[in-house]
Write a structure and sequence with these properties.
2 strands; about 75% helix
């Protein structure tokens, strides 16, 4: 009978992963939207809607004072209606999640050039100096370094293993890299959904505010009639378009930040893929 090489069973025993799931809290995704909407309302109500900015303020106040005769441009934005604080809250959300993603991705990028880091690891592996390669991972302190470090630990462990074939060892290293990658990528992409959503929703909410303002303006024109109605219509349209302006600004900012972050994530992902390829190819060539 032909000799049968150990495959799945031996590989499964020796290739058990040392990568541990990362405990992470995403409380910001729950708290930030609520806080930003409340902050948007407070800005609209007490800054844009400050009674001193109107010639005919509503002294009764309340949730939505009916001020008239705005003095400044910001006060005119107040008369855009109740949709304005929602748009302001969405704009604040873009700022908050952009800062959060910037800090997270900057940490994940690590120190120095990713390509230079991979080249240094390749050099050390070519000289069979795994410890020096692990030291480079500690210096990198990013997602690429974390994945490379997980793979190198398995790499070092399997060098002296006499039970598995080279192909099985390469598969074990590849599996370790894939599992480490599966823990790093979600952390990079987390909360990007808010920016992508705000890119489209911002414009739609602004359009809703504009339409509501136009309905209100044409309704006032129908009630008043005459030259005064035409003037009221012009003012109403101007106020309604503030919704469009804020919504477009929010969507544009969200789109720009989303594209910036996805580009950075793509660069990190490429570095992770390159690191996995480096480990498997190095082991296959060095330890046949």
């Amino acid at each position: 009978m032909a000799e049968t090489k150990p495959t799945a069973s031996a590989s499964a025993v020796k290739a058990s992963t040392s990568v541990q799931p990362k405990g992470s809290s995403n409380i910001i995704s729950w708290v930030a939207p609520v806080v930003c909407i409340v902050a948007g309302y407070l800005i609209w109500r007490f800054i844009l809607g400050d009674a001193s900015g109107f010639s005919k303020p509503d002294s009764a106040g309340g949730f939505w004072p009916k001020h008239h005769g705005p003095i400044g441009e910001l006060n005119r934005m107040y008369e855009g209606g109740i949709v304005v604080p929602i748009l302001l809250g969405m704009f604040l959300m873009v700022i908050v999640f952009s800062i959060e993603r910037f800090l997270t991705i900057a940490k994940a990028t690590g120190k120095g050039s990713i390509s230079e880091f991979v080249r240094k690891v390749q050099y050390h592996l070519a000289n069979k100096n795994v410890d020096a390669a692990l030291s480079e991972c500690d210096k990198q302190q990013g997602s690429v370094g974390n994945v490379m470090k997980a793979g190198l630990r398995k790499y070092k462990e399997l060098i002296s293993d006499a039970e598995l074939t080279t192909d099985q060892k390469v598969v074990a290293i590849q599996k370790e890299v894939e599992e480490a990658t599966a823990l790093e990528i979600p952390m990079l992409q987390k909360n990007l959904v808010f920016l992508s959503t705000l890119t489209s929703v911002g414009t739609l909410v602004a359009l809703l505010g504009t339409v509501m303002g136009m309905i209100r303006s044409f309704g006032s024109m129908g009630e008043e009639g005459g030259a005064g109605a035409a003037q009221a219509l012009a003012v109403g349209i101007s106020e309604a378009l503030y919704n469009t302006a804020v919504g477009i600004a929010t969507s544009a900012f969200a789109m720009i930040m989303y594209n910036i972050f996805t580009t950075k994530i793509d660069a990190i992902t490429y570095g992770i893929d390159e690191s996995g390829f480096t480990l498997t190819q190095s082991f296959a060539s060095q330890y046949k």
